[in-house]
Amino acid sequence: MDVLLATYNGAKYLRAQLDSLLAQTHQNFRLLVSDDGSSDDTPAILESYRVRFGERLVLVPNPHHGQGLVRNFENLMVASLHDGVAAWVAFSDQDDVWLPPKIELCLQEMVRMEQEGGAELPCLVHSDLTVVDEHLGVISESFATYQRMDPLQCSPLSLLSVNQVTGCTMMVNRTLLRMALPLPQETIMHDWWCGLVSGSGHRRFVPTPLILYRQHGANQVGAKDRSLKTRLLRLLTNGQGIVRRVRVLGGATYLQAQALQLRLRALGLDEGYVSEYLAWRGGPLRARIFGYREYYVGPELDRLSRCLLWFK
């Protein structure tokens, strides 16, 4: 299997993540790394770990520096798929710490899924995380609880609006990788897109936290306190900015769902639920207000804000 590590100016935390990969109970993996043009010591750190990883560390050329996280991961996905060696890939951020059984437990679940449903179906495994601060002090033992999510109840329909598949915990099989590529321009995040593609196959959530999910000032995507008190305070201090971000995300989710519809049609797969969703999103507010709980998951404040602020 391949571990895909996208890096960019990650020198501060990269060593801890690389050490955690070397401490995995399952060591039969390659580490594919794509750098997005780092100007810090990231390239030097990667070179210094070549001896410890040996030939398992593969630096994937990135000819298009500066295109961001999604395209950096796409570069790795393409490299792994075209190389044709790995049956499964796992996605790794540069600033987390993987607990020793992370790969082993996800791989066991993946093999079980493929035995039950067949490797020709897209399969995805993801797990819970422990949320920690930049010094690895525990903020919350469970990311799912902290975010008030229930990934066990996640459905292909609800994933169209809310991503509950955390990329740094995710492992996918080769079939899903092939179906997901190329990532459409409308992709919000690579992990969200892979989660959407898994709706045509199997997805399984491991409720055990397998990663220390580090929170710091440079997180591109992170965990936020979603208590009612904290959220009301954010509304009072930055209400206009929050409304603007919600509306932007609403438009992006609609375009991403359209891209999924086109991909499923091209693959000859059922896209009925996506068409249903898009039709509902395009309907009048009076129609959407009665069905929003079916399409939007999470805290009620989130659900209502999407219903009122999301349009096509």
Automatic annotation (TrEMBL):
Pfam families linked to this entry? Glycos_transf_2
- Domain Glycosyltransferase 2-like, by residue range, is 3-112
CDD domains for this protein:
GT_2_like_d
Q: Which residues form the signal peptide?
A: none
The record's section on InterPro entries has: Glyco_trans_2-like, Glycosyltransf_2, Nucleotide-diphossugar_trans
Q: Per its UniProt entry, which superkingdom is the organism in?
A: Bacteria
Q: What is this protein called?
A: Glycosyltransferase family 2 protein
Q: Which organism is it from?
A: Acidovorax facilis
